[in-house]
Structure formats: C-alpha cells, structure tokens
Amino acid sequence: MAGIVNIGGKLYPCMSLASLLGIDEQGAPPAKGRHTFARLLLMRWEEQAYALPVADLHGIVRYASGAVQAPAATINKGLSRFLSGVITEGDMRIGCLDTALIGFQLARLLR
C-alpha cells in the first residue's frame, strides 16, 4: 500500500498498480508535446474502492467483446497474467486488464 488519500472528503487506500503489474515506473518516457500531471484513478472492486496512481489517462474506450485479441506472446509473463486481452484503438494497442484478478490482488494486499 502506498498510503491513504483524501478525495472529495473520503479516505481511500492508495495502491500501486504499476508495482502489482511489475512495471518499472522510472523507465517510462515522458509524453511529448503535453504537460502531464500526477493523477489518481478510483477503482471499486466489490465493496472497496482503491486510489491508483497513474501516469496518464487517454480516456474511456468502449469495445465489442469480439474485438478482444490474445496478447502477444512476448509480453512479460508477470504482466500477461493480469491481461484478459488486447484491443486496437486507432494506432494504439491497448491491454484490457482482468479487473476481477486485479481487484482480488488489491484486496489481498490490503489485508
């Protein structure tokens, strides 16, 4: 757990999604041509909400279940277990996270 954050007068546990996924936060290149600010993404799993620090948000993408493809075999094995698949949006390939598994792991870390 990274700490506790106050959002709108409510306290939430702050958990590192990057740490859970095994992503090196220091190695990420800065976005070009944009100012980026630290953001928190609120996620609810069962009855518990979590604040997840994120580097950037590109928006919400709706997709058909038939558009989900298998992740590339070259993806880090630690990360791939959290992926339910990959979708294509414009020129980006976006990993679809398995929210049930992530929620379960976050709840386990909170205990």
What can you tell me about this protein's structure?
The model has no long low-confidence stretch (mean pLDDT 86). It contains three helices and six strands. The protein has a two-stranded antiparallel sheet. Strands 3-4 form a two-stranded antiparallel ribbon. It starts with a strand and ends with a helix. It has one domain. The chain is α+β, with helices and mostly antiparallel strands and 111 residues long.
Please supply descriptive tags for the structure shown above:
single chain, 111 residues, alpha+beta, two-stranded antiparallel ribbon, two-stranded antiparallel sheet, 3 helices, 6 strands
Strand order of the largest sheet: 1-2
| Number of DSSP E strands | 6
Count of separate DSSP helical elements: 3
> Helicity level, as a percent range?
10-25%
Terminal-residue CA separation? 10 Å
- Provide the number of structural domains: 1
The average pLDDT score comes to 86
Assign an overall shape: globular
How much of the sequence lies in strands comes to: 25-35%
Element order: H for helix, E for strand: EEHEEHEEH
Sheet having the most strands: 2 strands, antiparallel
| Contiguous runs where pLDDT drops below 50 for at least 5 residues | none
Secondary-structure content class: alpha+beta
Gyration radius, in Å: 15 Å
